[in-house]
Write a structure and sequence with these properties.
14% strand; single chain; 371 residues; alpha/beta; 8-stranded parallel beta barrel; globular; 12 helices; disordered N terminus
Length: 371
């Protein structure tokens, strides 16, 4: 009976509209307070991710307390807003826009055209014309709906376009696999890159209908040169056609100790420099540090988190840098990764050593090249 009651209580706490007890408040200043104090020029953003329906479990209170920069998890994606033709679901995205305005938070729309799309789009019989229409309608309406808001600062236009081996990410059979069906629209065979046409189409629409929102390419590979060289070549390809691209993002879902592996930090540093030299902001969009095995070394995890944000802060005088933890608590991580405890807060929203490492780092940033 006690076990049953425990689960009933947990379900109530996580139910929409029901707030759990206030999460533990960390010692020291809140991160959003430190950022506002230490980086008044607006060239550094430190934030986090959660979903609207996860907010009542503790992530909402934690997000608003700690961060002035917010990336909603899935609520701006095509799979949520436009899951199939003639179906539109704006409720969650609208709530985020209104809430962030009230809390004085800037918002990054994680709304990319990429592999996270509906089963409708992944259906093997879907035609290029159907996919083109779906993409055009979604991107056009998204831009027109939210570009008018000043605090909606960035938009991920495309996501995970290139695989680790440097090839364009494409479709797979069936609807249950991780795939990118949009390449069915075709490729630009007139250019040596032969880039998928959906990338150009998405940026054409965003350039036209989102003049006030900064446009980002988000990428998920590690620091492999063959993948990033493709992204670097994609930027001038788009700009040569009069399209706007304002930044690149890296999904830093990495294992503990990543910073110790030869070449990783050097490549990251050079990639940030390349972005700034090409008038691009640089974003670590989805940071996690996964802990594998039975013994969890939270101090080592803190050092890996610290290394990534430290690399960004060293470059803050060269251009805009942003950092974002993907999900705040281990309880909120996506299902297959929750046991790897890759977030800043534990399942009860108690801050880990990683939180305090980042708090200290933001409070006492490293010198830059200009210092």
């Amino acid at each position: 009976m006690r076990e049953r009651n425990k689960w009933l209580v947990l379900l109530l706490l996580l139910a929409p509209g029901v707030h759990a007890a206030e999460p533990p408040i960390p010692e020291g200043r809140r991160i959003r307070e430190i950022v506002a104090d230490k980086y008044p020029d607006g060239n550094v953003y430190v934030g986090g991710t959660t979903g609207w329906q996860k907010r009542p479990g503790g992530s909402g209170l934690t997000m608003d307390r700690e961060f002035s920069y917010v990336t909603p998890e899935n609520d701006f994606k095509i799979s949520t807003i436009h899951p199939k033709p003639n179906v539109w679901k704006w409720e969650l995205a609208d709530k985020w826009v209104a809430h962030c305005a009230k809390e004085k938070q800037v918002l990054r729309m994680h709304s990319p055209i990429g592999p996270q799309c509906s089963a409708w789009a992944k259906t093997d019989t879907r035609t290029p014309a159907e996919l083109r229409q779906c993409l055009t309608e979604f991107m056009s309406r998204l831009c027109k709906r939210y570009d008018k808001y000043e605090h909606v600062k960035w938009m991920d236009v495309v996501n995970e376009t290139v695989l680790q081996n440097g090839t364009w990410f494409g479709p797979k059979a069936g609807t249950s696999k991780w795939e990118n069906p949009w390449t069915k629209i075709g490729y630009d065979t007139t250019h040596h890159l032969k880039p998928p046409l959906y990338i150009k189409l998405a940026f054409e629409i965003a350039t036209k209908h989102a003049p006030n929102t900064r446009l980002i390419i988000n990428q998920h590979t590690g620091m492999k040169d063959v993948a990033w060289n493709k992204i670097k070549a994609l930027v001038p390809y788009l700009r040569e056609q009069g399209l706007r691209i304002d930044g690149i993002g890296w999904q830093a879902h990495i294992d503990v100790g990543w910073e110790k592996k030869q070449g990783n930090m050097t490549r990251l540093s050079k990639l940030i420099d390349w972005a700034h030299a090409n008038d691009l902001s640089f974003h670590v969009t989805e940071q996690n540090v996964w802990l594998k095995g039975q013994e969890k070394d939270f101090d080592a995890q803190a050092k890996t988190f610290d290394a990534i944000l430290r690399a960004l802060l060293k470059k803050r005088d060269g251009g805009t840098v942003t950092w974002n933890v993907w999900n705040l608590s281990d309880r909120d991580a996506w299902k297959r990764m929750e046991k790897l405890e890759g977030c800043l807060f534990d399942r009860q929203y108690k801050p880990k050593p990683a939180y305090y490492a980042l708090q200290r780092l933001v409070e006492n940033p490293p010198a830059t090249m200009r210092d």
